[in-house]
Write a structure and sequence with these properties.
- It is a single chain.
- Helix 1 packs antiparallel against helix 5 and helix 4 packs antiparallel against helix 5.
- Helices cover 81% and strands 0% of the residues.
- The chain contains five helices and no strands.
Length: 98
């Protein structure tokens, strides 16, 4: 992806929405996570999301290693904000490539 404008738009939109929800939420992020994991139906969605995040981390690690770079900042972002890490990686990688 030479010019990842779609990934950039998704990153900006999702990041702004995440900031908005974190500022207006009536409970902490940890309390929200515990609530999601308390029911089997919502826990399944969370587990699925984090499985996909783990696959994205493997991809970012291998891709960055092949480029002689570190994927650690993106992996840490993925661990906390899931989509933000891979989207940022795609944006940075895409705009730095030839």
């Amino acid at each position: 992806m030479h010019r990842p404008y779609i990934a950039l738009a998704a990153l900006l939109g999702f990041t702004l929405y995440t900031l908005f929800t974190m500022l207006t939420a009536e409970q902490s992020l940890l309390a929200f996570g515990r609530e999601l994991m308390a029911r089997p139906d919502t826990a399944q969605v969370v587990i699925d999301l984090y499985l996909m995040a783990a696959l994205a981390c493997v991809w970012m690690y291998r891709d960055a290693r092949g480029r002689g770079r570190s994927a650690l900042p993106y992996i840490l972002l993925t661990a906390v904000f899931v989509s933000v890490g891979p989207l940022l990686y795609i944006v940075v990688k895409g705009f730095r490539d030839e």
